[in-house]
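Board notes (copied after class):
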Amino acid sequence: MNDNDIQQSGEAAVPEEAALLQAPPAVLTNDKIRFSGVELLRILAILLICINHAVQTSQLFIDFDNVLSVGAAFLRIMRYFGQMGNILFVICSAYFLVDSKRMKGEKALGLLFDSALISIIIFIGFLICGFKFSAMEILRQFVPDLWFIPAYVLFYVIHPLLNGAVRSMSRKSHFTFVLVCFILGAVEMFVSISGSLLNTLVGFIIVYFTVAYMKKYMQKFCESTKANAIVFCVFFGAFLLCAVLKYVFGMKSAYVKSGIVIDGFYSPLLLPALLSLFNLFNKMKFKNRVINYFASCSLFVYCFHENPLLRSIARPAFYRYFFGLNADLYFVWVLMCSFGMFLGAYIISVVYKETLHRLMAFLSKKLSELLAKIIDFFYKKTVDNGDIATVSDGESDK
């Protein structure tokens, strides 16, 4: 990864480096340093995801869905932070990938290789600590259970096709598509849809088309601090109100508790708020190399802190110890776990980025080049055979 992107006047750069492991570059200055507003938002997004995962694990020890207290209410709301972080990641990527004209295979392969290697490294650590695993559990370490990563890779791979669709749509048809998706998002709040990989990818695509419409046709809104602040406060306030009501009434109704979903990828409450939040951060034109560097480690942080073994063994052990000391301080223990995961995963990610990631980047580049040659070979063979067949058919007709 590097910062050798080209600035375009009045527009965000068309990124050669619209990569997965690195935050997509925001508007660049002549000295090739990205503005850091969007990069800071990516760091905030991964913090929100860490908090969410810490809250999820804490439910093994406290059923805060059925406890009516201020601390339990905060934990219930904090459980939505993960989806907020996921949507922010997709918004940040989509905003710049809209201008990208091609997909770089080594980026997609690099992320898959990195996630697998990180999983294997953690697995080896558990073996050294004396843990035993079945053959199936060993095999699973090569394809870690990280739902966001494969969906994100597929999203990146197909983004040139999405760009072609965006360019071919009229403004009215584009607006109609986005409006229909928001209506479906409202329906999904009351009719829950299974969170499969395909459904997640569909969510990514809908966010992508929404971001594309905003960037293409709503420039005045994007540049207005006041308008974005109002939209964020109104929609996020409405979302928080719904979250509190869902928490209170969910203790009396199983349908309200499990059947109503207010944090889907195209939630009509959450998505407008997060789009406005993105615009506010995107207007920050300061430059900071440290922020940019840490933002480039964000998906490494995700792979480390949400590793299946750490999620199922290490985090419960942490809570088991501290809840044993004083269960009444559950809110403190959740915050400690959240920020501990965040800081610890960032430290390990920086070390990984400067060492083994370089090897993975090299291997993914070479494999991508090899695959490109194989595809070219079969493509030429197919085209040549097709041409011959066409000529032969033409001669036989004569």
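Comment from the instructor: The mean pLDDT is 83. The CA atoms of residues 232 and 273 lie 4 Å apart.
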